[in-house]
Structures are given as structure tokens and as C-alpha cells.
Amino acid sequence: MRRAAHQVDTATPPSRDRAIDALRALAILGVVLGHWLVTALVAQDGGLHTASPLQHMPWLAPVSWLFQTLAVFFLVGGHVAARGLASARDRGDSYGAWLRARLSRLLRPVAALLALWSVVAVILLATGTPLATIHTLLKLALSPLWFLLVFAALTAATPLVARLNPLWPLAVVLHVDVLRFGLHLGPSWLDWANLPAGWLVPYALGAAWARGEVQTRRSAWALLLGGTAATALLVTCAGYPASMVGVPGAAISNLNPPTLAAVTFGLAQCGLALLLRDRLRRAMARPLAWAATAFVNLSAMTIFLWHQTALMATTATGLLAGRLPGLHTAPDSVAWVASRLLWLPVLTLVLALCWAAFRHHEQGPRRSRNRTSRVVRRHVPPARSPHHA
Questions:
Q1: pLDDT per residue as tens digits for the range 236-270
Q2: Which among 223, 214, 178, 176 is positioned nearest to 198, based on CA atoms?
Q3: pTM of the full predicted structure?
Q4: How far is Cα 315 from Cα 49, in angstroms, rounded to an integer?
Q5: Which of 8, 96, 115 is nearest to 358 (CA)?
Q6: Which of 370, 313, 383 shows the shortest CA–CA distance to 347?
Q7: Which of 23, 142, 183, 389 stands the most exposed, by the fewest C-beta atoms within 10 Å?
């Protein structure tokens, strides 16, 4: 393992910013762990129903602050896309060719997920499974797709976003929330304007980072402190939920669609991510740490798409042994949390099996031994032309 890690380390170009990959890996793993910790499938009345420990123990809301890391992923996505587009233009590649290359690997793994769950849905219907249970399972399994659709749309809009000030989409979110929560005006569909606008804020911030506009520690501290203060005011004074993830049965969800509190919280996360760049670069200088980070990046979409399926496969298989604590029981006590923590290694193992079965949809066919891994070749900072300088 150490020899393989050393090979990955030595093959990585010195110009590669490893902190970018580390932030992306942390963001993906944060989402996976967050879902596994706050999502419960409770066996009740002959079916499975979604529940959350945040319903019964609101004091666990800080858990969502640690693991709701989507803003960091959009920050990195905007940064990488803006630099990649600039590099493609320097090489003379067209926008269409660049976009196809970006979206092909992003969307290829989706086909396998849709195919599998189409078959599963047909089998469940044929065996008389309650429709409520089928709806619960499909909603969880396909929930990652909303993220990919938004991310793909923002990627396609990168030529415009590369010049966009993040304050513009932030203003859209602010006005929508004033209308729906403050004045109670506007049609119901207006809420969903925050779905692209809310995630456009960190994505545009990443593009601004690529332009060199938020490089200083002062900018990072302003984002961290300003975002934290704004979020605290919105939660304590404006009635926004403290949880940064959706809670079943709650009147307001900070993520469905994103609220102003979710966006300001995301800005604080982005500020913290920018502050941690130097520490992450030093940590990634260790071959083992870098090899693990490179592995997560190479399998990012597979891990993200299949982590909910791993949870449901474990839950369904566990039913053969009866109602198991932390897996099928109601998440209404600290004992459930302790039991769920013990299940995390099992969920990781099942996700590893899903990765082994479906990784080729993301990574493509196995490479020959003489070819360099894409892990160490992608996202090399583009050469700066005199125009860019």
C-alpha cells in the first residue's frame, strides 16, 4: 500500500493544487456520513418509513453543521470548471467539446443507478410491496440526482458564471425569502427559484476564486465570520430552522429548496475551506493521505450516487434478522445514535461492494499499466497566457 501510494505521489505533477482535491473529497464524504447519520428507515405497519433523529432530538442540529458540505463541493466545482474552461480555450478547444468532456463523466454513472432501481421497482410492485414503501425507497435512492442536475446546469453556464459576481444570486435568494417568509406573497413555484440561485452563490464564488478575487486570508475570514453571523441572526431572530438539512415533518426545510440561512451558512463553510487551503496542502504532501484523496476523487460520483442504495440494501438485508437497533428502530434516543455509529463500518463495506460493481461507469475501462492515471493528470492549473496575465 505504501509503495502504491508513493507511486501516485511521485506521478502527481508539482503544479497540481492538492488542496482542491482534498476539499472535494471532504465535501463528498461529509454528505455521505451526514445522510447515514440522520436518515433512518423505520419498519412500521408492514413497510419502511423515513425518519430522522433530528425530529426527536433537535439538540443534534450541530451534526448537520458538520456534514452538510454541499456548498464546499459547489465552490470547488466552480473553481475547477472556470480554470478548466480557460485552459480549454488556451488549447483552442471549443466550448462544446469542453462541456461534453465535463458532463460525460458526471452523468455516465446515472444510467446504472436508474437501470437498477427500475428493475427493483418492478420487482417490488410484482411482489405486492406497499406503494408507500416503494415511494420511500425510490425517493431516497434517486435523491442524489437533483444535485447532479443542478451541478450540470451550472457547469453548462460556466462561461457566464465565470464573470458573475456571487452577490447577484445571493440577492435573488434574499428577495425570494422576503417574499415567501416575510410578506407571504408570490406563487408557490417561486420558492424553487432558490434551487439554482442558492447553489449558484458558492459556484460563482469558486469561479471568483479562479479569477484570483478571494485569494487573501482577509477575504476568507470575511466569508467565515460574515456568513456565521448572518446565519446565527437568521436562526435566532428570523425563525429559520437550526438544522441545515431537511427534517421530516418540519414546516420549513433549509435545503428543499435552499433558504437564505442555508446560503449564508454555505458562505461561512466556503470561508473556512479557503482558510484551510495551506493546511490541506501540507497534509496532502504525505503519500498515503494523497493516495486516499485521489481515490475518493476518482470515485466521487459513484460514492455519492450509491451511498443511499448501500443504506437501503443494508436495512433490507437486516430485516431478515428482525428489527435491529440503529437500523430499523425509531431514531428517538441516544442509544439509537450509538447503534447507528456501530453500523457505519457495515454501510461502508456495502458501499465498497457497490463501488466495485459500478465504478467502471464513472472511471471507464481498465487502463493498461503504461498509462498514467487520470487522478494525477486532471485539473492541472492552465498555463497563463499574456491576455490572462
A1: 999 999 999 988 888 889 998 999 999 999 999 99
A2: 176
A3: 0.89
A4: 12
A5: 115
A6: 313
A7: 389
